[in-house]
Each structure stands twice: as structure tokens, then as C-alpha cells.
Amino acid sequence: ELKTGIENAAVDTEITISGTITRAYDDATITIPAGIAITLNCSNEAKLYYDSASITNDGFVIPDTSSLKLAGALSVEAKNYTGGGNDAGILTLANAFKIQSGGSFVIDGALSAHTSYSMRNGDYGKKSFIDSEGSVLITANGSVSGWTVYGNGLSAALLIHGTAGSLTLDGGTVSGNVDVTSNLSIGSSIQIKSGASFTMNSGSITGN
């Protein structure tokens, strides 16, 4: 089991996942152990499938002194995300990845959200794809895409906040993240807030 493999790691560890991993309504958050670096190698259309429209526990938490590196391609898919209707495709009730101050998230592969613009995916949820008070690095192999919300402007593909929060774009791509309403000043792609920093060495931010 993914949660057991990660949380029982006593040394820096590489874990390979493939195919579909289903996340149920009451599944607990996966927390990277203190002082441990986890590399998640994703292959064969690796997917985290949220089998409920009401999941409120964060997916992964990366605390102080811990790190998570994502390699390969991983999608996070909401139930019924292509089905339409107000309850379809909801991911905004929980952060998929939460990085605490002092934690590190390296995106060295393609990370995509399969979600929708249904009303409750935004107006009824305030959480983000990646919420970081620590450091996020998107490498030349990395990308973040597909975050789609409706409404409130509080949710983003990359929400970086706090004085220890940082985002570095080192050749990767942030694209295809959309808020379908037009009356907001805050975007659904990248938000840098409350003393956080952003460094763009190379790469692209496009089509958001």
C-alpha cells in the first residue's frame, strides 16, 4: 500500500507506482516522514482516482525537513469529472499536495489534474492542487496542468504563500489551468502571496 510504504520509510526511498490507485472518502492523508526524501516514480498511466465528491483529507503532506520528488507522469482524477452537473469533478475540498514550511516538493515529471468547472468545484471548495508554505521546484522535465475551477478565486494549481514559501520554475511548464468565471482578479494558475517568492529561470507559463 502506498501510504504504508511511504510512512514506514526509515531512509530515503524510491517507490514506483503504476495504473490506478483509488482514494476513498475516508482515506487518511499520506505524510512524508520527518527528515526523509521520497521519490515517487510514476509509470503506466499512473493515476490517483478520487472515488468521492466529498474528500476533505489532503492527499500528501510534506512537513519540515521532508521532501517528495515526483518523476514520470501522474494524474489526479476527480470522480465524474467529465459527467457535468454541480457535483461532478470536485477536487477543491482538499489539497492534493500540501507542503509545510521547511518541506520540499520537486516536480520532475508531468503532474495533471482531471477535474471540472462544475459550480461546486470552486464555490464550495477553497483548496488547491498544490498548496505550499515550503519550496516547490519544477524542473525541465516537470509540468503542472489541468486545474479547472469555477468561481471564488481562492483555489489555484500552485498556491505559494508565507515567507518560507517559494516556487522555482527551472525549465518546466505550467499550462491549461483555468477558472471559468471572468469576474476575478486572482487566477487559478499560480498565486504568490503573503511574502512568498517566485523565481523563473526558464520554462513557460501558458494557456492558463
What does this structure look like?
- The protein is an all-beta fold.
- The model has no long low-confidence stretch (mean pLDDT 90).
- It starts with a helix and ends with a strand.
- The chain has one helix and 16 strands.
From the structure above, extract its key features.
208 residues; 8-stranded parallel beta sheet; 6-stranded parallel beta sheet; 1 helix; globular
Number of helices: 1
Radius of gyration over alpha carbons? Answer: 16 Å
Estimate what percentage of residues fall within beta strands.
Answer: over 45%
Report the biggest beta sheet as strand number plus sense, adding barrel if it closes: 8 strands, parallel
Shape: globular
The strand count comes to 16
* Structural class estimated from helices and strands: mainly beta
Helix content: under 10%
Average pLDDT reading: 90
Short structural summary:
The chain has 208 residues and is mainly beta. It has one helix at 2-7; strands at 13-23, 30-31, 37-50, 60-62, 67-78, 97-99, 104-114, 130-132, 135-138, 143-145, 148-149, 158-161, 166-175, 178-179, 190-193, 197-206. It contains 1 helix and 16 strands.
